[in-house]
Design brief:
Blueprint (H helix, E strand, L loop, with lengths): L1 E11 L5 E8 L8 E5 L27 E9 L6 E9 L3 H5 L9
Antiparallel strand pairs: 1-5, 2-3, 2-4
Length: 106
């Protein structure tokens, strides 16, 4: 499985003085997909942006995971909701051996 992109969406802003979020992966960089998303300053519905460069990652082992890091947190955090989203693509041998045709209007 290949990870094409990962991001953060602010559902409800938090009440901390400062909260910035990084999203990366085990065995890679802690901020590969999201670097310093300011959740407290974001309006509800705001999405993080991908850092410059290639966001695609093909995990090397089954223990590679997507990691969310509170890069900075000051004050008390007791409210706030975020959504972490990811887009995956199956690039296994099985997917290559079973081609299919998309149906019209699918």
């Amino acid at each position: 499985t290949m990870v094409r992109a990962v991001g953060v969406q602010c559902i409800t802003p938090d009440n901390a003085t400062t909260l910035t979020i990084d999203v990366g992966y085990t065995g890679g960089t802690v901020d590969h997909w999201v670097d310093g998303f300011d959740h407290g300053a974001a309006a509800a519905g705001t999405y993080s942006t991908l850092p410059a460069g290639d966001g695609i990652v093909a995990p090397g082992t089954s223990s590679d995971t997507i990691d969310v890091l509170f890069a900075t947190l000051t004050g008390t955090l007791s409210t706030g909701v975020m959504r972490i989203w990811a887009e995956f693509v199956d690039v296994s041998e099985k997917a290559l051996k079973q081609p299919s045709i998309a149906k019209l209007k699918s």
